[in-house]
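Sequence, structure tokens reproduced for reference:
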Amino acid sequence: MNINKEFYCDVLIVGGGIAGLIAAERALKVFKRVCIADSSKICFGASYFPLKATLGIQATKDENDYDKYYEDITNMGKGVENPELIKTYIKNIKRDVYLLKRIGFKPWLRKDSRPACFAKYSRNIFLINDWNGARKRANKIFRKNKRLKIFEGSSLIRIIKNNDKVYGAIFQNKDKFFFIKSKVIILAAGGIAGNYKNSLYPKKINGTCHITALDAGAYAQNM
């Protein structure tokens, strides 16, 4: 493997969907140099899948709803959920829904309060749609930021460590390989649903990034 080019950034984000763009928006508030690498294009993948209908985000009502929401999610998790991740979501989701506006979406509150498909208790639901409009707005927001470098068509091949600490990552773009040096790597690449035999997603949407994380020493755990 010949490395053709080398880059450096403070924070490297793998994945250009909703999670990746929110991570980039947050990182740019603190760090000088941020990179996004995506195997396709930003605003692509499962987050912006055109056949998807309106997406709902259930928000915690208030502090009295914390335990009930935790109960709803853990009942669905069947023992493989991540307790700390659930607590973080429950505590912050109502406050952080506005971040979707920062990446081009226009969330609105559903008029009726209702339980999610997995939930016992009802709560407020924020909705987003208009994937094409959100994609255009996000591209306009992020491509003009000179402190953000975007690598599209670039697949994560390997995470490099030095003394058991993240050192950077190797990517492949067509027949070329390049290295991005960074002490912080955020894996925001989803696509796990694309690995199932019966899936509505295109073949390009898959969870190969998670395999790379496992190779680097991470372990897989459900929410």
Observations:
- The two ends are 36 Å apart (CA to CA).
- The domain at 1-49+132-223 is CATH 3.50.50.60 (FAD/NAD(P)-binding domain).
